[in-house]
Design brief:
Number of helices: 10
Largest sheet: 4 strands, antiparallel
Strand order of the largest sheet: 2-3-1-4
Helix content: 55-70%
Length: 234
């Protein structure tokens, strides 16, 4: 997260990040238990896999916003495996669930070391293990360990998508409109390919690049919540 943020604002955003990380990790572990119970079935629990994928995706988005690149990268790699599992390209086994359990534990460690301002633990062995469990076509798409951020560095304009810029305020926060709720609403519209904080004229905002062909029809409602849509470059 940019050092341009005021200490109070940075602390507030990080507190929100850590709280949501705790909730997401609890949900991830619960879904892993559900999937473990379904191992005896002929097919995996697709609803649990989808729920697990959404939680990992949300964790990745949170990590991107606060600049926690190793957690963003690891969650991205786990997303690829979960996508392969949900498509039944990779079988759900005790080994894959054990690996995902290790991933959840490492994500927790990454959030903890970030909170304590300590060096991040190693993620490369887990990235290698995640890639090994997937079909070649899926694993080859994983970014190299040194690449950060994991999500595309290209702006939405370069991908033919749209950018949504959210500017928080105390009034919006009092109405429950904050970076987390806005990100969730945007994710429901399409894939968030990049998320990053920005400082312009001393004001804080968050840019979200989305792989969508058009903005939502209710632009006035979005603007009332501090979200301005920017079209692709012509």
């Amino acid at each position: 997260m940019s050092s341009d943020f005021s200490p109070a604002l940075r602390a507030e955003l990080l507190d929100d990040f850590y709280a949501e990380c705790d909730d997401l990790l609890a949900h991830i572990r619960a879904q892993l238990v559900t999937l473990d119970r379904s191992l005896a079935s002929a097919t995996p629990d697709d609803a649990a896999l989808e729920s697990l994928y959404r939680s990992v995706h949300s964790f990745k988005g949170n990590a991107a916003i606060v600049g926690l690149a190793p957690a963003e990268q690891l969650a991205h790699a786990a997303e690829n495996l979960l996508r392969s599992l949900s498509r039944h390209e990779t079988p759900l086994t005790a080994a894959t669930l054990e690996l995902l359990g290790h991933v959840a534990h490492r994500l927790e460690q990454l959030a903890t070391t970030h909170r304590l301002q300590q060096p991040a633990p190693e993620i490369q062995p887990l990235l290698d293990a995640l890639a090994a469990f997937q079909p070649r076509s899926a694993s080859s798409a994983l970014p190299p360990a040194a690449a950060a951020p994991v999500e595309s560095a290209k702006p939405a304009e370069a991908r033919g998508g749209w950018r949504a810029r959210f500017t928080p305020s105390p009034e919006r926060d009092a109405r429950g409109v904050n970076v987390n709720t806005v990100r969730a609403r945007l994710a429901a519209l399409g894939e968030i390919v990049r998320a990053a904080p920005a400082i312009e004229s001393g004001a804080m905002s968050f840019d979200f690049d989305l792989a969508v062909s058009s903005p939502p029809p209710d632009l006035a409602a979005w603007e009332a919540d501090g979200v301005v849509w920017q079209p692709p470059a012509s």
